[in-house]
Amino acid sequence: MTKGVKMTNQITFYDPTMRDGEQTIGVNFTIDEKIKLAQALEKYGVSAIEAGFPAASKKDFDAVVEISKVVHTAKVVGLARLVRQDIDAVVAATQQAKHPMIHVFIATSPVHRTYKLHMSPSEIIEKVISDIRYTKTMMSEIIFSPEDATRTEPEFLARVIQAAIESGATMINIPDTVGYATPYEYGELFEYLREHVRDFDQVTWATHTHNDLGMANANALAGIMHGATEIQGTINGIGERAGNVDIIEAAAAIYVRRQTFAKQTAIILEQSKHISDIVAQATHMPVAKNKPIMGRNAFAHESGIHQDGYLKNPETYEILRPEMVGTQASLPLGKLSGSHAVMNQLLSLGYHISRQDMVTILPIFKRIAEKTSTVSDQQMQDMMTMIQTNKMM
Ligand code: KIV
Ligand code: ZN
């Protein structure tokens, strides 16, 4: 643990699937889908649900209102630019939430200041101070994000954040908005901020990592090694462009490598498949077969060597029991499968065969497997009927 960092080993998860996740091209949750997802997320163990951007549309506003009514323990958060109308909309939409929170943001990097906001660094600091003070008169829990933090001059970033904390922000989120940072840099940025933000220990720090270079999970984990105690991420990693860090992957990594991280989470990992399915269905975005943890192939072992090892002891090729994340392992039979797995499957189909019988069966199986992607149970049964009819063993 780094010197001066708050001593907690509890990592919380903040879920913006319904806001950042909904920024995925083609994704448009209905209010009913959002309510169902919010309830599932709460059971999954996330500590905050960013339910929408109330000023963006009536539908987003209504979704935040409805979610505020049904969520009991998690914070319900609405997103707002540092614009009074946005802030007022979040305050109104979260009125019925048991634990309301507002997420305010403004971009801080040179490219955003120059081309998007047309604001100078001092104008940004003034805006942060005046609008967070304004927000604080109505909301006690405020999360502040300097958008594109990882491409912002660190010295300016520290000044903006200090101003946000002094004005009333209770949590600081460090967005790697365009997925540009490397894990080393992202961790170092937290170190820099710890050294240069006077009130670092007065607030909670969150990671917010995008996956443009495939480093979202590594970056989030680097953040928690250097002072962050909350990870913002989405289910199935959906989000703008290449998406956000996938909460399921981050929580699984913290669990599998618990000795390395010395951290724990409140996530009920066994519900991962259930929540992943809810999001896949509502977004019409099936999970890629080779996606870590939730992909159909994540716990599938096809080659003979792997199947043999797995059947002797699953730990040979598994770092996490699939049941831990609500799914199962599979041993699909294909051209690379070996005698051990083929025999195992025939026994489970009810055939009484010996190792000696496999001398006859395996070459026939291989001929069938070479002509197909995976060999189904029906094909296995047809093969056995043919072998028995022809009295081949
Ligand atoms: O990626 C980002 O910068 C965001 C902000 C709104 C926090 O999603
Ligand atoms: Zn984002």
TrEMBL record:
Molecular function GO labels: 2-isopropylmalate synthase activity
Coiled coil: none
Associated pathway: Amino-acid biosynthesis; L-leucine biosynthesis; L-leucine from 3-methyl-2-oxobutanoate: step 1/4
Record has Amino-acid biosynthesis as a keyword: yes
Enzyme Commission number(s): 2.3.3.13
InterPro entries noted in UniProt: 2-IPM_HCS-like (IPR050073), AIPM/Hcit_synth_CS (IPR002034), Aldolase_TIM (IPR013785), LeuA/HCS_post-cat (IPR054691), PYR_CT (IPR000891)
Any one GO biological process: L-leucine biosynthetic process
Family: Belongs to the alpha-IPM synthase/homocitrate synthase family. LeuA type 1 subfamily.
Protein name: 2-isopropylmalate synthase
Keywords in alphabetical order: Acyltransferase, Amino-acid biosynthesis, Branched-chain amino acid biosynthesis, Leucine biosynthesis, Manganese, Transferase
Signal peptide: none
Segments forming domain Pyruvate carboxyltransferase: 11-273
